[in-house]
Amino acid sequence: MEIANRTLTADVIAALNYWPDVIWGGRKNPPDPVDLTVLLPFFNEVLQELPWWNRDWKVSHVEPGLPLEIESSHRGHPSGFTEVSVPGMVGSGGGASLPFVAKVGFAGDQLIRFQAKIGDVILGPALAPAGQPEPHPFARVLTGLMELRGIPVKVMARETARSMSTIHMLRRGTHNPEPILAQEISRVLGMSEADVKVIAGIDDGSTR
């Protein structure tokens, strides 16, 4: 699903920015009503681009969104985009329906991120090419932490008594950070083992 470079219409931007339950400085409270139904064709258009999406299912209802992040140039709290969570419902021609939540990130009139949750299933753009598994989310965090601390792959491998290929696979997300490895990495990063396990999504007693 191609997300980048999609231009949002003024009506869609207004609907995404309609937060009657949120008090925010510089915004009218309560805000003037807007037409939320413009979000229905917008969400359906994005979902229809998924090649495996069942065309019988359509977003049938949306409610005002809740901001997760608000674009601002305020000193000390800069943010380059707005991200909103919009709840609603999807339904099929057969009468079945499921709860729906869209997470939409946009900067100005450009859509930069989209994720949908339908029932208990999350849909979003893939990071890896088609036919390849998605990288473990710990990969990006580990890479960033190593770069911030100036720890080369060679040093991480030596200090954890692991091969460089193992560290490279961790940084690419093609190797899961099992508990023992997380423990070894935490010492090199100068972090607590508990913190690294939380970041890696490893619960106590996990066998992953």
Please outline the helices and strands.
Elements: E1 6-7, H1 10-16, H2 39-48, E2 58-62, E3 66-69, E4 82-91, E5 97-107, E6 110-118, E7 121-123, H3 138-149, H4 153-160, H5 164-172, H6 179-189, H7 193-200
Antiparallel strand pairs: 1-6, 2-4, 3-4, 4-5, 5-6, 6-7
Helix pairs in contact: 3-5, 4-5, 6-7
Question: Can you describe what's shown?
Answer:
By secondary structure, the protein is an alpha+beta fold. 31% of the residues lie in helices and 21% in strands. It has helices at 10-16, 39-48, 138-149, 153-160, 164-172, 179-189, 193-200; strands at 6-7, 58-62, 66-69, 82-91, 97-107, 110-118, 121-123. Strands 1, 2, 3, 4, 5, 6 and 7 form a seven-stranded antiparallel sheet that branches. Strand 4 and strand 5 (97-107) form a beta hairpin. The longest helix has 12 residues, at 138-149. It is elongated, with a radius of gyration of 21 Å. The model has no long low-confidence stretch (mean pLDDT 87).
Summarize this, please?
The chain has 208 residues and is of the alpha+beta class.
Average pLDDT number: 87
Please report the total strand number as a whole number. 7
Instruction: Tell the overall outline.
Output: elongated
Query: In percent, how much strand structure appears in the residues?
Result: 15-25%
Largest beta-sheet characterization: 7 strands, antiparallel
**Pairing-aware structural class of the strands and helices?**
alpha+beta
Helix content: 25-40%
Helical element count?
7
> What number of structural domains do the residues give?
2
Oligomeric description of these chains: single chain
Structural Rg: 21 Å
Organism: Embleya hyalina
GO molecular function: DNA binding
Protein name: XRE family transcriptional regulator
